[in-house]
Amino acid sequence: INSVVTGLISKSEIGGPMACMYLLDHKDHYTSHEFRNLYWRSFVDYIHRPDIYGNMCLYDWTRLSEKIHSPKLRTQMADLEGRSGNEWDGTPNTPAVNTVNHLDNGAPDTCPPNVADGKRTEWHMFQPSHPQYGTSRVRMLPPRSAYVPNFIGGPLPRKDKGNREDYCMTMLTLFKPWRTGLDLKTDCGTWEESFMKHEFTDRHNDIMKYFHLRYECNDSRDEFSKARK
Torsion-angle region of residue 88: left (phi > 0), alpha (psi -120 to 50) or beta? Predict the structure, then answer.
C-alpha cells in the first residue's frame, strides 16, 4: 500500500490520456491515421511484387500493402507440389501453388485491383525471385485502412534548390511503377527528361507539392527570424 500511495503522490497530476493508457490500455497518442515507416532505400518487396500489382508505384505500395510471413508456408507448398489447380483461399495456412488465374496484365489503373470497393484483396505470391517467395504473401488494404508513409533516412530533395537530377530520380522512384532502374530512365537520357515525360496522376502531383510545403514553411520561419534580428 505504501508503494501505491508513494507512486500516486509522485504522479499527482496525471492527465486523462496517461490514466487511460495505464488503466484501460489505451494508446498514449491520438491521430486520424496510422503511420508506417518507409525506409526508402529498401525496395526488395516492391521489386519482386506480384504481377497483378505491376502498375503500382512504390509510394502506393507502401501505403496499401499488407504482408504475412510464416515458415509453414514453405512446407505446405512442398506438400502440394505436383498438384494443379490448387489456389490459395486467402488464409495464411493454405498457400496457393498456382496463381496464374489471378494475374492481370491489362491496362494501367490508378487503383489496385479490388481495392476501390473498400475490401481487402486476396493474398498473392511474390515473384519466384523474391528471397521470401516460399514463406510470404501480400495483399492490398482498402483506402480507409491505408498507412501514411513516414520517410526515414534523411530529408527528401527539394525541387527548387540543390541537385535537380537527384530530385527527379527520387520522385520517379516513388511515383512511377518500376522493377529495375531501366524502367525509370534510359541509359542515354537524364533523370529530368524522364521526369518531364512521365505523366503523374493528379494525386501524386499533389503529394509532391505537400513534400515541398515543409521547406516553404522552414524558409518562412528563417526569413522571419532573420527579420527580427
Answer: beta
DSSP string for the chain? -HHHHHHHHHTTT--HHHHHHHHS---S---SSEEEEEETT--HHHHT--GGGTT--HHHHHHHEEEEE-THHHHHHHHHTT--S----SSTTS--S--GGG---SS--SS-TTTTTTSPPPPEEPPTTSTTTTTEEEEE--GGG-EEEEEESSPPPPSSSS-HHHHHHHHHHHHS--SSGGGT--SSS-HHHHHHHS---HHHHHHHHHHHHHHHHHHHHHHHHHHH-
- Residue spans of the domains in the chain: they are 31-153, 155-229
Residue from 20, 1, 21, 19 nearest 11 by CA: 19
Alpha-carbon span 71 to 129, nearest angstrom: 17
Q: 14-58, pLDDT tens digit by residue?
A: 666 666 677 777 666 667 788 787 775 567 899 999 999 999 999
First to last CA, the chain: 57
Give the global pTM. 0.67
Tell me the three cell numbers of residue 167.
530530385
Q: Which residues pair with 78 in a beta bridge?
A: none
Tracing cell 498507412 back to the chain, one arrives at: 147
Q: How far apart are CA 146 and CA 67, in angstroms?
A: 13
**Contact at 8 Å (CB) between 53 and 112?**
yes
